[in-house]
Amino acid sequence: MIRASIRASSRVSSRLLACKNCYVPVSQRITSALVSGSAVNNNIRFYSDKPQPKLTVENYPNIKRLESFKKLGKEDLDYFKTILSQQEILEANENEDLAFYNEDWMRKYRGQSKLVLRPKTTEQVSKILKYCNEQNLAVVPQGGNTGLVGGSVPVFDEIVLSLTQLNKIREFDEVSGILKCDAGVILEAADMFLAERGYIFPMDLGAKGSCHVGGIVATNAGGLRLLRYGSLHGTVLGLEVVLPNGEIVNSMNALRKDNTGYDLKQLFIGSEGTIGVVTGVSILCPIRPNAFNVSFLGVESYEAVQKVFVQAKKELGEILSAFEFMDLKSQNLTKIHLADMDHPLADDHPFYILIETSGSKKEHDDAKLEAFLESAMEDGLVVDGVVAQDETELKNLWQWREMIPESSQAGGGVYKYDVSLPLKDLYSLVDAANARLEEHGLLSIDDESKPVISAVGYGHVGDGNLHLNVAVRRYTKEVEKCLEPFVYEFVSSKNGSISAEHGLGFQKKNYIGYSKSEQEIKMIKQLKNLYDSNTILNPYKYV
Amino acid sequence: MIRASIRASSRVSSRLLACKNCYVPVSQRITSALVSGSAVNNNIRFYSDKPQPKLTVENYPNIKRLESFKKLGKEDLDYFKTILSQQEILEANENEDLAFYNEDWMRKYRGQSKLVLRPKTTEQVSKILKYCNEQNLAVVPQGGNTGLVGGSVPVFDEIVLSLTQLNKIREFDEVSGILKCDAGVILEAADMFLAERGYIFPMDLGAKGSCHVGGIVATNAGGLRLLRYGSLHGTVLGLEVVLPNGEIVNSMNALRKDNTGYDLKQLFIGSEGTIGVVTGVSILCPIRPNAFNVSFLGVESYEAVQKVFVQAKKELGEILSAFEFMDLKSQNLTKIHLADMDHPLADDHPFYILIETSGSKKEHDDAKLEAFLESAMEDGLVVDGVVAQDETELKNLWQWREMIPESSQAGGGVYKYDVSLPLKDLYSLVDAANARLEEHGLLSIDDESKPVISAVGYGHVGDGNLHLNVAVRRYTKEVEKCLEPFVYEFVSSKNGSISAEHGLGFQKKNYIGYSKSEQEIKMIKQLKNLYDSNTILNPYKYV
């Protein structure tokens, strides 16, 4: 019988601020206050254990500040003081280096902005942008600053336009489930607000305690509920956006259907703050499921993973809410890291699967899951498995998926790739990367002289989203050159995407050509030029 | 006990080619052959019972042909003959008036095109458009020509670019459920192809036997499965589009996630052929449910309709696939029309609800539905109801919803409005329209001297989509002036949309201002100008 209990472990006690696909370890982090009055106190924010990064311009000396941008002057500050209160303006001075706003979450990038503006209204955002556009002052829109590609921090001296204080829930319709809120509402706050009313925000990710609703829309974040509720392109019903010239585009309607004209809002979903600043979001929220199940399974091949996925879609149908896979290498690293915990399955298997269901009736979900697992085992597709019996076990099972990123970098460091690939090719990248690293004599699980420990693969099968983590003992140019552009070329050859959900930002700006055709890049540039001809919005990034 | 059987009726025997929200009665219609070799024979197509319409230019004498467009010459035909075979070119001559391509489905509009091009490849489409753009020849892209707003037929002498012969399924991934096909594949053919593989097309509508996959994408059709599977903006993963200048934009990837650059394909979803011609579609298809239930309920108020909707979302959760409401007036008209059938409920009720569930396990769905209905009746929300016991009963229950459009026009004619409104305001338009018609002395259910019989309301509560049908004995200017722009102004005052799913086309081009702000219209025109500066694509329409 596959039903077995999982031991709870005290080992995994620290709070995880993790995107389930991209774990971001943070020793201490102050979650800003929820919904209202959530002014982040930049004196008490703590970062990851990493040391303060070098300035981005030091790491990337080839990138030059655009000469066309004006340098901030006293007259500019004087203007901003006419439209914003003192509390809405933060200037760099001897006591204040604005590090909170200049550095990204991972401490990989550091800008040199001297000014942070924190408007409380859309009209203020409009006035700020209109002025900056006229004066050629570069601006970086910033939400919760939890991005992973350096998209939300300045590169040089761009003004930071923080949406933190634009943070009110505007309206919720309990019949339709349509939520309207300011861009700066924290995702967790929105979800808690909805939970009290029996609804759920249609996406979730580990940084929910810090990231903003506007930020996830601007970056088209993927996260955990995509398999179930689809992408933000489907769930976002309307946006309020301020264009670089200060014009406000208001499509904050509460309609599921509106077939009058091009769907303009779609352009801003995933535009990463390069053509407009999202200030308001209208989104359709589903009823909160009240039953959750998690099962952890062992299978013998990647082909079996795919077969189990098809079977799960058929038998679990409408209640399937996550289908994650992990290879043995990823679990071996995690076993070292979670040394005090027993792995859910006693024996090794080439691949593991985590299945989550969520539905409206527990006994029905249990019956479906049990029937599915029995048939999958009878068919020989699944060779071993467990089902969580309570909330604690459910969380513990998720640990073996969630702790892979931290485990991957525990040996010294990690090269991370977040890619989309057609499902049949999803795992081939991991095999190819391992083969290549071996071929170059860089890989050994126990020979300390080799830089690479292991290249492991895991991800959201349901979304075709693979995470390739190359665990290393140390960062070396040799490893980097072995992996890049190899990984991007491989993904491109399979018509995949070099960024499944993290976006382009600063990090991947130059690699867009691996995912998009020349024609598409031309059109992307046309749109950038159409809306932001002075390129004041989030320069040096995206495209 | 609410479970009761519904008598099957022989009265409703004719095949319904109906969009469930907008029924289009057609006495005979030849569905073109499926998937391949589906060249529509324009000599055997039959239309609605209505007489051939006047030319659009006769009905709308104020609209003038754009002088900038070249008139078709022999040299143009000569060119087309170099890139297309004889079978791919249809010229008007004494035996061929091209009526199939010049007239819309409803026989409301009639153009005067002398040339229809029916390419078989994307490259041919590209060459055609490049040439037309260079020569300033106006073009109307045409799919199955089942639109309801005159968007797919010429107004003057535009060349018709029919996608009928671009009709191959390109690829299907049985693991991910991603279908790639040509634009000209008929929706029903795509769905049948998917059904054989256990999948379902994520949208459905009555015209499925004729409409094209490319056409539903280009018009962002809504249809029946929106409540369950969401809009095409979420399910379409990639498009192949030919721009007016002949450039091919290929984003036909098979990825659920791709965060590299603006999501260009979204612009073409719902663009109604005004900025590009969709030639290929990549779409995510869900597993086909194998259990369906339909229930028909009587409630006492519109407030109760809303409460039952919330309750249904909570208790039926993931299996709820349709939630339709109808007012008593609509059922009274339908009773006259379906005189040989007994209404599902013996007594009159101010409002009726049709609920459909679809899921992966019949017994679970039955149990959920039964529990929901019992609690809704105990709470006094639902006062009477029936559940279909078999496929025939299920179809019969749907009749009382589907036959409303035909019943509405059976007395002489009907003014139809397809609008989106915030849910709480959804029905208020029907009350307002009735009050206004009464006030103007135009309305009487039995006084034959009054032009209006009844203004009835029904629609997709789940989508906030109301259909207001004003049943009339005869069309009069007085009624039209009483209703327009009144209806549009009312919808606009509630921040609704004047076109929920039918689009703008020719019919609503001039009314976009009721749903979109000046700022949005400006941006829509900017995009039109960006991609089609010569305005050769689908002129006189949309914006």
UniProtKB/TrEMBL annotation, chains A, B:
Keywords assigned by UniProt, alphabetized: FAD, Flavoprotein, Metal-binding, Mitochondrion, Oxidoreductase, Transit peptide, Zinc
Gene Ontology molecular function terms on file: (R)-2-hydroxyglutarate dehydrogenase activity; D-lactate dehydrogenase (cytochrome) activity; FAD binding; metal ion binding
Cofactor(s) the protein needs: FAD
Localization in the cell: Mitochondrion
Catalysed reactions, as listed in the record: (R)-2-hydroxyglutarate + pyruvate = (R)-lactate + 2-oxoglutarate; (R)-lactate + 2 Fe(III)-[cytochrome c] = 2 Fe(II)-[cytochrome c] + pyruvate + 2 H(+); (R)-malate + A = oxaloacetate + AH2
One GO term describing the cellular component: mitochondrion
PROSITE patterns: FAD_PCMH
All copies of domain FAD-binding PCMH-type, residue ranges: 109-288
Job description of the protein: Catalyzes the oxidation of D-2-hydroxyglutarate (D-2-HG) to alpha-ketoglutarate. Also catalyzes the oxidation of other D-2-hydroxyacids, such as D-malate (D-MAL) and D-lactate (D-LAC). Exhibits high activities towards D-2-HG and D-MAL but a very weak activity towards D-LAC.
Record family assignment: Belongs to the FAD-binding oxidoreductase/transferase type 4 family.
Protein name: D-2-hydroxyglutarate dehydrogenase, mitochondrial
Lineage of producing organism: Eukaryota, Fungi, Dikarya, Ascomycota, Saccharomycotina
